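Entry type: protein chain
Record version: 2
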Amino acid sequence: MDTLRLETDRLILRKFENGDMEALYQILKDKEINTFLPWFPVKNIEETKNFYEKQFADGRYHFAICLKDNYPIGYIKADTDDSYDFGYALRKEFWHRGIVTEAGRVLIAQLKRDGIPYITATHDRNNPRSGGVMRQVGMKYCYSYEEWWQPKNILVTFRMFQLNLDGQEDRVYQKYWKLYNNHFVEKDI
């Protein structure tokens, strides 16, 4: 697998390395950061390593977000399955500085160069700041749906956003619309 590395004026996006497990642990153990993510906070470095192997090790577009000191402060990713799911997390002390938006824009530019047709992302309606990041990188709201969300076992209304990278502006990823009976388009989103 190649070692794709992306840079902006402030950031380096690179693959996680074995020496990054403590930095990744700092992100994954935080309850507030992980409130709206589909897993529970990790309890130790061993759980962090397991998470890394399961979630990030083989992902072509799964990156550590680093400042220029090359120390990971977050992650950003785009899956390569049919959803091309776009996701991110950042340590709290770096929130509200435009870091994820900046990382997202450079990742999206790479995805477009590589011929990825679109990306999707969902956010819990109770986490509107995540939707703000989606808008800032150019994604558009498509629809909402209710899911009995696992593993947290709670009912969540998700908002699905999409950005078409190949010029097919009318394409909308329909999987969640078809999968969940309670789906709808919210006004004034």
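Comment: The radius of gyration is 16 Å.
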